[in-house]
Protein: Alpha/beta hydrolase
Amino acid sequence: MSSTFLYGANVHANGIRHHYLRYGGDNSSTGQPLVLIPGITSPAVTWGFVAERLGQHFDTYVLDVRGRGLSSSGPELDYDTDTCADDVIAFIRALELENVVLAGHSMGARFAIRAMTRGAENVDKLVLIDPPVSGPGRREYPSKLPWYVDSIRDCIRGANIEAMRQYCPTWSEEHLRLRAEWLHTCFEPAIVQAFEEFHSVDIHQDLPAVDVPTLLLCAGKGGVIQDTDKAEIRELMPSVRITTTESAGHMIPWDDYEGFFNAFGDFLGPEL
Structure:
């Protein structure tokens, strides 16, 4: 497969610099745009292996969420859910994208949901990849904050692949190398606030207001979304399509690359 990577670029939106990577190959000027919002400690570059394949079918944009990668960062910025959702809205508007497939993984899925209820425009479909369903009065998110903070601090000091393997023992050399290279760009206060808001922000209240076709793509392992959660989400969003990659944990394409794409079925049209 030839690479579909086009370029990395920056755009000013919602008052800050947003860095993104664009994939699309021959269809970049005519393909339907797909905007991908990664998870809590995943700079855009770490999703490149997924975006390469998405780029065969879509004009694909992978965003560095504020406080991560090459986007604006630092103590002067806000990192709450509403602000990050507004970033998504402003990013789509700044690039003048239309008929967008908006996809988010984990934290990014929560931001995508909130963006839909805060005025996101020109969104055609929504893809929610194993979003945390914790919140006030709900069970805790299964991962623990020290796992994130300790690994970031290790990378700030200069961690190598073997150090990263302690945190992600099943990952390939390639993915461990990328994480070791880029994790230091994750601004710790941004990560702490995002994690805390997994538990303090009720994203379920937003679901009934989502009015575009939505796919909920769940991991079969890891315990982020359980059967009772699927039932509740279906009650809140009767039209939602739910699929599960049984063999994968929360980082679904890292664990089962083909299974991840198979889980889309025909939701996005062509077979991925």
Observations:
- The chain has a mean pLDDT of 96.
- Strands lie at 5-13, 16-23, 33-37, 59-63, 100-105, 123-129, 214-219, 241-245.
- The chain is about 35% helix and 20% strand.
